[in-house]
Amino acid sequence: MKAFHTITEKLRFPEGPIAMPDGSVLLVEIDGGALTRVKTDGTHQVIAELSGGPNGAAIGPDGKCYICNSGGWIYEWQGDVQVAVGNAPKKGWIERVDINTGTVEKLYTGTDEVQLRSPNDIVFDADGGFWFTDHGKRSERSIDRTGIFYARADRDEIREVIFPMVTPNGIGLSPDGSILYVAETLPGRLWAFDITAPGEVRKDFSQSQHGGRLIAGLAGMNLLDSLAVDSAGNICIGTLVNGGITVVSPDGTDIRHIPLPDRFVTNICFGGENLSTAFVTLSSSGRLVAFDWPRPGSPLNFLNR
After folding, report:
1. What is the pLDDT of residue 87?
2. Measured between alpha carbons, how far is 277 from 7 in angstroms, rounded to an integer?
3. How far, rounded to the nearest angstrom, does the alpha carbon of residue 204 sit from its chain's CA centroid?
4. Does any domain span residue 302?
5. Could you tell me which residues are beta bridge partners of residue 150?
6. How far is CA 297 from CA 116, 248, 284, in A?
7. SS3 state at 94
């Protein structure tokens, strides 16, 4: 088991961590319906109260926090841990929060052709646009086929770029911004797409309906959640059930698992000196933890660059 330091606890299903330059960590509390700042002493400060189910989060070119809101999840307590057991029926959206004032704006609910179902994770490119996943909704006998979207922060554009995928969740960029990575939760697969222009990717349909290049497919109960990329290009993915961080090399030939004591290890980000500290959300136990990473994380556009 990986040795770690608990920064804070008693969070209500935390996700979407962002390590800020001042040492604090922004995160969402999905069940708590909040964007929260965790200070270096472990105390919490609610920046904004949010409806639905705030999920992935990223700082945009205007310094505001852009949030994928899933519309909500259904939770139950199993002993002293909180477990997501289903989707709330409300459809999701993209919103942004002024972290100085707490003002919340809803930006997108879908394209002209496609309504968003359950937006999940988000990453900004150097051009000022953002990629995000739509995880979809599941019911007892059905599951959405959803896709990957690209949108602009100025509300001028949103479009579905990649379709169809099954429970797409984590999303990130290679250190040079040339490759888009997407993790599917239930299949346990990691895909790559070569970026040809802002919001555009090259597709090869020889391996998949959506045109992605398979990097890794995990056996066993390794359900892939949100992700971050380190400076060596390794894709570091929060992993459910077999709780921990799954680290996949860019070519998929080296796959390692860092176990952590929570079945819902949902996300990771890098911060601290030289971006060499991993901050990880242990969601079912409501904790934000940190530990040293062997190399710096990849800097994020508009936050570390």
Report:
1. 79
2. 12
3. 25
4. no
5. 131, 159
6. 30, 14, 25
7. strand
Residues in the chain, pLDDT under 70:
none
201 in the Ramachandran plot: left (φ > 0), alpha (ψ -120 to 50) or beta?
Answer: beta
Number of domains in the chain: 1
Domain membership flag for residue 299:
no
CB burial class (10 A; 0-12, 13-18, 19+) of residue 161?
A: middle
Identity at 125, one-letter amino acid code: D
Q: What pLDDT is recorded for position 280? A: 98
What is the DSSP annotation of 273-303? GGG-EEEEEETTTTEEEEEE-SSPBPPPTTT
Per DSSP, the residues of 129-157 read EEEEEE---B-SS-B-EEEEEEEETTSS-
Between CA 263 and CA 291, with CA 7 as vertex, the angle to 5 degrees is: 70
What pTM was estimated for this model as a whole?
0.97
Spatial strand order of the sheet with 119-124 comes to 119-124, 129-134, 145-152, 158-166
In a domain, 65, yes or no: yes
